[in-house]
Design a protein that fits this description.
about 60 residues; globular; about 10% helix; 1 helix; SH3 type barrels; mainly beta; 5-stranded antiparallel β-sheet; about 40% strand
């Protein structure tokens, strides 16, 4: 399993785009489920950490 290290404030790019057309997300909350926010429309969702590890394409910027 690929254990990636995330920090609050990191900007990430997912493989599939959001229905609003944005690819970039910001990490808001960490835990077993990770809360991410679309930087284009502002929608927030919870994604299980295991599922996010599969969906992530790259980490754009580091946060704190």
């Amino acid at each position: 399993m690929d254990n990636k290290v995330y920090n609050i404030g990191d900007k990430i790019v997912l493989r599939k785009k959001h229905p609003c057309g944005g690819f970039e997300w910001e990490i808001i909350k960490l835990g077993a489920d990770i809360k991410i926010k679309c930087t284009t429309c502002g929608r927030t969702i919870f994604v299980p950490r295991v599922e996010l590890n599969k969906k992530i394409k790259k980490i754009v910027t580091g946060g704190e």
